[in-house]
# Entry
Amino acid sequence: MDGLFVKCFFEAVLYFGPQDVTFLIGLGWIWHTKVATVSPQNLQPDAEAAVEAFKTKKGLEDVTVSKGSRTWHLSL
# Structure
């Protein structure tokens, strides 16, 4: 812990750390906003009816439905 490298490393983390954390939080916020704008979440009170409506709207017949704990996934 007395080496020059270790002391320089700690000082660099203390100097650049807050800048990096601020930048990464801002970048994460921008990514989250972009993704939420492109593909927003919609809560459906009746998931089975929503799946059937989607299948009829798209004209799909053979669809595999995977039920998760909070989300459902459809695959062709």
Observations:
- Helices lie at 4-38, 47-58.
- The mean pLDDT is 91.
- The chain has two domains: 1-40, 42-76.
